[in-house]
Amino acid sequence: MQSMRVFLLSIVLTTTLALGATAGPGPKDYRGAKIKPVKIKNVRQGEFYCPPGVLVLGNVVIHGGRCYTLFVMRDLSGTYLAFGQPGIPPGQLVRLNTPAGAKVRGRIFYLVPVYATAVLVPVNTIRLVAVRAEDFGPQVSVVLVGVPVPNVTVVFNVRL
Question: Which residues, in sequence order, are CB contacts of 128 under 8 Å at separation 6+?
Answer without folding.
Answer: 45, 46, 69, 70, 71, 88, 89, 90, 91, 92
